[in-house]
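Illustration: Peptidase inhibitor I9.
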Amino acid sequence: MLKKFYKFIAKPAFAFGLAVAVITVSCQENQEVAKMDLEDQFIRYQNGDVIPGSFIVVLNPDGITFRKDGSYEGNQAALRTVANSLLAKYRISEDRLGYVYGTVLDGFSVKLSSAEFDALKNDPAVKFIENDRIISIAQGNRPGGGGGGSGSTGQETPWGITRVGGFVNYTGNNLAWVLDTGIELTHPDLNVSTSDGFTAFTTGRDANFNDLNGHGTHVAGTIAAINNNIGVVGVAAGAPVVPVKVLDARGSGSYSGVIAGVNWVGSKGKSGDVANMSLGGPVSQALDDAVLAASNKGIKFVLAAGNSSTNANNSSPARVNGENIWTISAMNSSDVFASFSNFGNPPVDYCAPGVAIRSTWLSGGYNSISGTSMAAPHAAGVLLLGNAKTSGFVLNDPDGNPDPIISR
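Result:
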């Protein structure tokens, strides 16, 4: 297992680590809760709160005067120069500039006054500007969600892994990128690769790749927990999982930070890699465009449909469609559509297990939680192994068009 820590940190002028539980495509902890109660324990997401004075600016490609050299570092530096030049035109200070996106978008995040926004939006170099918003998950107990996990007395195969066709010991060369709260770097049941890790945070305890929440570690375990004599086993057992930390210890972040993570994966990932995004919220054209652009490199993006019992076409990035993009709804162990899951064909491609899912957790432990956040990594593991198959259709799909159940 590759556990050595190579630190890469994004360099925005501002980062948001807010405890406001606003947008969730997630889960809630299950300690001694009866299995039948778990569907009522899920976390619903709401409209994302606007971050006052913060915006995401997307530029017209025709207005970009630099040639991309293909490297992340080169593209980022060039886009930063372009952004600062545009801001200087309106006497906007460089210290207002946040993230820059040189690979999957030609754009940046920035703090603006109302007058500066009005001036910038009318510049011919600007394609569109949208509000930055808070994106977050909520935990069932104390912030960080460290409670409720348990240790292991031997390996078990969670029901969801069995339902999607069982596990395979992974022998490939591709990576599983987990855009989430990070991954616990020292978990004995995970093969964490940090050489390509990323964090959207520059200060405080989240300025590293380590998971202080539990959500990202849980997702990683479903994809790729190691086939050994402890804990659980993932679909693509032992595959390297890469932490792309876009949510903090409280499960909070920003759309601009999530796009920064997608930009990183789009630059560093390769064809055949899988990127799991168990997060989402209200429509964001910038986020959608970033995911689509990254997927065009052959990176397989797996998106949670969302937990608001509504049409997934109203959520980003769940609504994005593309050749290398899959949106996943959730079901229980009886193949019944989870009451909390979003629906709609398109964009939903497959249904997967998402209720009472046991996987890796903090402090080397294990936990059972529910959500489309848990369904997506089942699909990510299947797609990391190759092409997906199906095994029947989910029951009681509210849109009347039953989603096929993914299987390897």
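Reading the tokens back as a structure: Confidence is low (pLDDT under 50) at residues 1-9, 11-47, 138-148.
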